[in-house]
Structure formats: structure tokens, C-alpha cells
User: Fold this.
Amino acid sequence: MRKSPSRWEVAPWSRLRIIRVMLGVVGLCLIAMTLEAPNLFQPRAQLKAVGASTQQELREEIPAKPRRALIDGAKEDLSSTRSPQHHGSSSSGPSSSSKNHPQEEQGLPKPRPVEGGEEERSSPPPASSATALLHAARAARVAGAKMWQLVESNFAASPAAAKQHSSNLTTLASSPPRKNSQCPQVVIVSGDELRGTANVAVIPCGLASGSSVTLVARPLKAHPENSPHIRMLPDGQSDVMVSQFMVELRGLKLVNGEDPPRILHVNPRLRGDWSGNPVIEMNTCYRGQWGAALRCEGWLSPDEEAVDGLPRCENWLREEEGSSSKGSSSNAATRIPGKNANTWLNTWIPEPEKGGLDWRYPFAEERLFVLTIRAGWEGYHVSVDGRHITSFPYRTGFILEEATGFAIGGDVEVRSVVATGLPSSHSVVSSDLPLEESEQYKAPPLPGGSVHLFIGILSASNHFAERMAVRKTWMQSTSIRSSLVVARFFVALHSDLEINLQVREEAEYFGDMVMLPFIDHYDLVVLKTVAICEYAIRNVSAKNVMKTDDDTFVRVETIANLLKNTKKAPGLYMGNINQFHRPLREGKWAVTYEEWPEEEYPPYANGPGYVISSDIAEFILQQQNNHTLRLFKMEDVSMGMWVVQFNLAQAVHYVHNLKFCQWGCVEDYYTAHYQSPRQMLCMWDKLQKGDAQCCNMR
Assistant:
């Protein structure tokens, strides 16, 4: 009798059917891959060019030769330049480097043959994006033309009078400090007085080591927020309860159009943080760029991270710990209760330490507190109600003497602010470096032939101190003084005539500035990069072109030698190269889909310092003349996009190196970003002694 199959067995015909189905699925996948194969070789960020008609309009709005609108203080001619300025740096990306191999060739896009024509390689971006850029260029050009006419008429009519406009900036660097009467050693401001000054207490001469600022205040009760900034709304909820406030040490010597530097930002979050727990977050911010935050969440920091011997974060009782703390007492085994306390098992379990952690998060809603920030030797120390809470190490570029404001904001009621131990005079070396009319800082004449490297420096019209710091430091490099390397500032016009007259006089005297006939605008930074390429090719015949910013310290000799030792190949693109970066769609630096429809940026080098070879610069000018150069407001991303387009026809030699530092300064740097004028002087002094070291100033 034949045995019937078990219900767990599979009949042979069913097994065959399964195999057939699987083969069919594999076949469909192969067909789909075949159809999609051409797309596999497309760059990750599709290249789209501005349409000819729109680009033609843009060129018409930016005249090629605006009479004397484009000038160099050395009377050099720049034919057909278009651009304005500002710092267009983007965040750095995750890339690896090696000490033994500081430069690496990346596996980035390879060249592929051009198929069809320009129409097949690129397509116009959304009309709204090109229109917005066109409107910005038109407004900048119209306002710039009027402003330049005023500048030239005032300057030509009476150069002596024009020079008088800048006399308040032309002083000796060794000017004496302010009198003691202007630098009080104690500042006391009541809550009522603060409300009349937008909750900002002025500290005229900043802080010094040993200074302290004390705040007496009361956190307000939590309130609902439907769009909180410190956490996401939970699913199904329309709001979340939030109670937070911030105190900041700020630099109040503002440059028009820029946020004040946040030298120290302390943000207690009683309720509403994304973690669900009360935390204290500390950070710094310079020109809109936040550093890495220090978050204190109730855990004790490691001893090796101590600041002046104090932990960066103290521990406190967390909500989930109840009456136990994180530490030896909370981790100890539970002792057996009972009448016989000396039971044999209890002898193996240690006694809880007496005097263990018995205090919670230092702030509570509607409870008065006293917060003190003290400036130590290595960093700031924050205490609440007399107990040390957190310490924050000093960061590069943020100087105690520049902390001239103490700001309070958020859900808090201020009673008073008291600052003590203040300096009796200003520091002799101020970050507001005055202009010095010295022959030493004038630009040397342009060489008759080509140069190995041209450095274009983006600068805002009112960044007088930054430009003077560059002139006194790395622009004194041997290669620049001997004209083997040429460096120029690229400066657009300001909306203030007085500032423009000062800039005009500065350019006339130092001979190292290229003035552009536009009112400065962040969205038009990319046009300045085009101007740098054009000047480098048409005025100095540079073999390599470097773009940097006026707050970046450049090791000129090191980069020049690096270029000489780099494998001779066309299409050089050198810098701190990012890959697979995505646009930010929210926040202050948001990029809309109309501005950038792709999901990723092309590979690009960070804006504070990168180098391209002359053939890439010539390609950019050719594309601009052909009206096929796509323009995007972030200049470093634009350069990466143009290089990818160049790579379609000719190989690109990508050289990545983390020593082109985007965020501050690293050991043995090539470029160091976000450097104050005072730090520039310090770094130059160290470099002259043979040490390429950062200056973490206090």
C-alpha cells in the first residue's frame, strides 16, 4: 500500500513550479536592469545648465566692461568680470585621510564621451530658480552702478577728501588702550534695565581670565509649542510642552549683515529636548556656523576631558533613576535586609558610599536660581546655586576680550546680571586691526609672465580688519613678495557710500583689491568665483587658481610646494572634498527644490580653501561665454558641479586632503578657517618659527 505524503512534504510538481516562478522573477529583474543600465553611468547629481535665454539675460544684467567699475589698486585691467562676495562655505563631509599619505586620489566620476550635443548633457533648471538669481543680479547691478558712480565722482573730485573718510581707520597698531574710566571692573544691570536693551547687558571691555558673570533669574512654566526647534513632534500630537532658555557671551562689534559671534552659548532645556530628559547644551557660533555641541545629560564626564581639573559635565539624578544615582551607589548590588545585618552574603556586597549623589537637574520651573559663568585658564566654568555644573573649553577663534555682551533669551524671567573681575583696559592687540599705511604691506607688481598660483580671496567690503590681518601675515610669504604667487581680494560694493569710499582708498593704496560693481549679496557669491577664474586666466596667466576667504589662514609655501610635487595631470581639483552630501531643506541655510532639485550635491571641495588647474578655470569661462554655465548660490557646490561637467570630456585629478580645514584649525594645517585677526597674527608668528600650530586664544 502506497504511503500518503505527509502534510509537511512538498509534491514534486509544486517544487518544479516554484523553480519556474523564481526563474521568471530573475528574468524580469535582468530585463529591468538592462533597461536602466544607461542610468547607472550618470553622475549622482545630474547636470543641468541654465537655459541660453535666461543666461543671456543674466549676462546683459552684468556688463562685461563697466568702465572703471572693475578696478585693481595696482591699475590692473580685468576684462569682463562679474561677481559679488561673502563666505560661501559649506559643511565639511566625512572623508578619511592618512598621516603617511596626506593626499589621496578619490574614486570619483570618470570621464565619459559626450553624446549628442549640449542638449543631451544638460537641461534648464526650474524657471523660478533662474529667475530668482536673475532678479538678484539685476538688483545688485542696478544699485551697484548708481553706487559706483557716486564713489568715482566723490573720489575723483577730491581724493584728499576721500582719504579723510578712511582716516578714522588708518592708525598705528600700537595705539594706546582705552582709559580705565571706559573699562569698568564691575557691571550691574537690573532686570528692568535689561528689558529696555533687548535683554543684552553690555560689558564694554570684554572679559579676562578670572572674570565672572552672574545671572539671577527664574525659569518660566512650560508652554505648548506646535513647531519646537529642539525636538520632533511625537506622532499624533499637535504640540509639545517646552521650557528652555539661553545665556550667551557675544561679540557686539558687529559687521553689517552678519550675526554677532556667540563666544559661549549655554542652553538649559528643562522640558522639550529630543531626548525626553532635561539637559544643558553648550556651543559656539561664528558667522552662522555652529560648532559641535557639548551636551550634559546627567552623566559624569571622563577625567581626561577635564577643564582646569573640573569635569565637563557633572552628574545628577536622572528621572529614571529615582532616588539612586549614576555612580558606585547606583551600580552596587542590593544588600539583603533583615535583622542580622552581618549576614555572610552582605559581607561580599560593599556598603553604599555615604554622601552619594542626592541632587537633581539644577533648574526647575518657576524656581529662582543663581548662575555664574567664570573664565578660567582653559575654559569657562558654569555653576548654579554655588555648585559646579559644567565646564566648556575655549575654542579657536573665540576671544575673551571680544565678549562685550551678555545676552539672555527664552523662557526665563531675569532679575539681575552682575559682571565682576573685568579688565581695566582693552587688550593692546585688538581683533579690530586698524589699517596701516606702510609700504611693507603694498602688493608687489605683477610679473611679466605666468605665475604658478593665483589666490583669490573673497572679502566683504567692511571687513577692513580681516584684510589687514591677511596683509600682515600670510600675504608676507616669500612666494607672494617675490611675485611667484599672486593674491588679490575680491570685494563687492556696500550699500553705504562712506564704506565704499574707504574701500576705494584702501584699494588705491595697497593695490591688492579687485572691486566689483555690485551691491554685495550672499546669493551672488558664485559670481565672484567666476571673477576669480577670469582674473587668474586673463590678468596673470596662472597655472593654478586657489579660492579662499578673508578669515582663512593659508600656508602659501606649503601649498605651492604641494602643487609642484603633485603628479602633472590636467584637470586638478584639490581640497577637502565631500561626497554624497544632501541639501538642507529646512533652517537658515535651507536650499529649496527650485534652487537645487537633485537629492545630492556633486563631489565638491569646501569653500574656505581649494585649488583648480587653469584648464578647469578656462572651461568655466568658456561655459560662461557660451551661456551654458549653471549658477548656484553656494559657490563651492557650484565649483564641484562645474568640475563634474568638465569631467564629462576630460579626466579630473581629484586630490582630497583634510588639512584644507573647514571647521577651524587642525595640526599641520594647509588652510585654517574661521580665524580672527588676532589668531592670524599668532599663527603667523608661530609659522615664522617653523611651527604650523593653531592658536586657541583666550
Notes: The CA atoms of residues 462 and 499 lie 7 Å apart.
